[in-house]
Structures are given as C-alpha cells and as structure tokens.
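Case study.
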Amino acid sequence: MNVRAVTSDVLLGIVPIALLIALWQALVSFGYAPATLLPPPGLVFMRLVRQLLTSEYQQEIAATLFRLFSGFSIAVILGVAIGLAAATHPAVNAVVRPIVRVLAPLPKVALYPALLLLVGFGHESKILLVVADALFPILLSTYYGASMVEQKLIWSAMAAGTPRRQILFKVVLPAAVPSILTGCRIGLVISCIVVFLAEMITSTDGLGHVLVTAARTFQAVDMFVPLITISLLGLILNGLLEGLRTYLLRGFPEV
Amino acid sequence: MITSEMIARQSGAGNILFNALDMGQYDTVYAMIIIVGAMGIGLDAAFENLRGRLVKWSEPGFDIPLSFA
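After joint prediction, the assembly is written out as follows.
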C-alpha cells in the first residue's frame, strides 16, 4: 500500500468522526439537548486535556491499564497454550472441547458477583473478569488456526527429520500466527470494554469509576472525559497491535 | 443487557444478582448466575439452530461455539 493510499484511508477514517462531533455540536447549539446534560465538544476536549495533565487522572488511567494488561496478558498465555494443546493432542481436545462448549456462550459478566465473593473487590476480580472474557476469542482462534495448518507442511517437516516437538514451534505455531493475532485483537477490544464495565459496577478507582462518580453527581463534562479517554486508549492499543501484526506477518502474502 | 441492569439497578436479572449480593443472599447469587448462564447457552444454541436452517448451503457450524459474550 503506497503513502497516498494510506493518507486517503486515514482521511476517510477521520470524516465520520468529524461528522459525529459536528452533529454533537449541532445538537447543543440548536438547543435539542440542554448544555447541562450534553456539554459542547469543545468544553469536553478542553477538560480532557486539563485532566490528562493532573496526576490524579493519570493514576486512574494507570489503574485501568494495569487491570487491562494483566488480564489480557494472562488470557493470551492461557488461550494460546490451551488452543495449541487442544489442536495438537486429541486427549487435551477431548477435555477442553466440552468445557469450552459450555463456557464460551456464557455471559461472563454474570460471573462477576461470584468473583467478587471469591477474590474480593480489589484488582483481582476485575483482572479475572477480563481473563474470562478475552480468553475464549484467543483460545478459539488459536485452536482453529492450528487445526487448519496444511498437513503437507507437517509431512514436509517430518520428512526433513524435524522432531515432533519442534514441528509445533517451527511449523504449527508460525502458520497459526495470523489467526492468533486476529483473536488477540478481538480479545483486546473485549478487554477494554470489560475492564471499563467492571470499574463502573464496583470500583474505587479507574476510568469506569470516574465516569460513574461524575454521572451520579450530574457533572456532565467530567462524565464524557473518561469515555473519550478509554476510546483513545482502545484506538492506540488497537493501532499498536495492528503494527505488531504487520511486523510479525511481513513474510505472509496477505499483508 | 445484564451489565446495564447491574449498573442501573432498577429491574432485570442483573439487578436481582447485585441486590442479592448486597443483601448477602449468596444462594440467590449463584442461582442467578446459573440462570443467566443457561440463558446465554440457550440463546447461543437457538441462534446456531436458526443459522443452520437459514444458511443450509454454507459451511457446517463449528464444533465449538464461536460466540463469546
């Protein structure tokens, strides 16, 4: 993709966001929504910049990011390990399959009260909820990615004398990387949503807590600030993961 | 949906779940978790069944459900 195509893609991506902000401003300017309930975007962005410079707000962001990365990292390690094991060992597959079949469609947020009872109101319950939600997309994409590796590749490696253990790391895992990274991307977006929701339900810190506190005290401007912050964080993290994907898959024909 | 009920706390399964948690009725908490879980699994199965009927010509369904809520 050349520079001109990338620039036009970026511009096309900015247009809908600009339209959304214009619609927001129009709703306030023409009096469709009272400014006390829906503050103008300029005011919100100014508050956002001011908040980002305060150490208190930076601590709230750090708390959210800590839970997000802890949960997501555990989900990646468990998801990739279990997915690879289930795809390559029939015995593991026989154990994992029924468990995943029951747990994957379960709304994980329903487990949150049980997590609160078992591990308390601290970081642990939120991190475990993120793990529960992000695990299955990563596990399933790893499982299907590893299951769909062409048999010819494995036979070729075996014919070349590659030991069975090394086939997993030198053939199956690299061939499943595109699928694993797609699962990771879905898992990351889910992690962002879940950590925010968990903080909104029960927390004493984090961006979700800031939003709920502002909403309960009718501070409309402060309510929009964490919302935009988590959106920007999601956008940045998604961009970083996309960069990592492009780097890792630079030899693959699809990139 | 369940999450919004947990936050707004006016009605619904999420509301019952957190009210029970607040009042220390832990048997109700676990019962509601099972009910909500069964709802999720039932809806997933119903959707998979509908998908199978509507798009018979497409590739067969996955052995393991791909939906993750």
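Observations recorded in class. Helices of chain B lie at 2-8, 13-22, 26-54. Chain B touches chain A at residues 2-3, 6-7, 13, 17-18, 20-21, 26, 29-30, 32-33, 36-37, 39-41, 43-45, 62-69 (CB under 8 Å). We will return to this complex in the next lecture.
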